[in-house]
Specification:
alpha/beta, TIM Barrel, eight-stranded parallel beta sheet, 9 helices, 39% helix, 18% strand, globular, binds nickel (II) ion
Length: 254
């Protein structure tokens, strides 16, 4: 079944129909969803929310746009969340020089601290990196070795993808692979083995064609699977099977 490795069902965009939508996931072929924290607040709401759904797990971490909320005290409180049931990863963490909400120094500081936390807890990491390719790679080479994880919503070159694959990381592929202007990601998918790819929605964002621009959800992930299948010359069923196996291995759910 489909394994959505990265979703944000705590978003207010799901407030109207969250219960119904999530209840329909098994019949839409979705077997597992990891709901990923982003804001400091979500580190508390997300672990709570996933307890209600047997097929959902949580990742706890603070997104680079939100690291202004972190200090020693809040970081310690966030760390306590990992004692909760079904919290299985640290994320999303990383660098975002596109929105540039916080200084690069502050982003790097908390990125490194959260990587160290993952090492301490022996948990996989979910990496967010936008327009920060070189700095992300530098930090990952120094602090990310020996960890498992995924470079989520991968937007860099095929050369860089191969480098991450060599380090043992997975590449997160979602709706962008169906976009007309998604050439770069299609090249990445062609270049790396299917055993290094995981599926993700990043919903409510990045809905695949034919729903581009609309609210995304895990049921639409099959369109991304079809996009990958076309590039790889295999069936969408095989893409769903292999990526589920990859995700279970990465999250330690196998
Ligand atoms: Ni995300």
């Amino acid at each position: 079944m489909i394994f959505d490795t990265h979703a944000h069902y705590d978003s207010s965009q799901f407030d109207e129909d969250r219960e119904e939508l999530l209840a329909s996931m098994p019949e839409q072929g979705v077997g597992t969803i990891v709901n990923v924290g982003a804001s400091y607040r979500s580190c508390f709401t997300v672990p709570e929310m996933v307890q209600k759904y047997p097929f959902m797990y949580a990742a706890v971490g603070v997104h680079p746009d939100e690291v202004g909320a972190l200090n020693e005290e809040t970081f310690a409180k966030m760390k306590e969340q990992f004692q909760k049931d079904k919290v299985i990863a640290v994320g999303e963490i990383g660098l975002d020089y596109y929105w540039d909400n916080e200084s690069h120094d502050l982003q790097k500081k908390w990125f490194i601290r959260q990587l160290a936390l993952a090492k301490e807890l022996s948990l996989p990491v979910l990496i967010h990196s936008r327009e920060a390719a070189a700095d992300t790679m530098e930090i990952m080479q120094e602090y990310g070795r020996g960890l498992q994880g995924v470079i989520h919503c991968f937007s860099y070159s095929k050369e860089m993808a191969k480098e991450y694959v060599k380090m043992g990381y997975y590449i997160g592929v979602g709706g962008v692979v169906t976009f007309k202007n998604g050439r770069k990601l299609k090249e990445v998918v062609a270049e790396i083995p299917l055993t290094s790819i995981v599926l993700e929605t990043d919903c409510p964002y990045l809905a695949p064609v034919p729903f581009r621009g609309k609210r995304n959800h895990s049921g639409y992930i099959r369109y991304a699977a079809e996009g990958i299948a076309e590039i790889k010359g295999v069936s969408a069923k095989e893409v769903i099977r292999q990526t589920e196996e990859n995700a279970k291995k990465m999250y330690g759910l196998a």
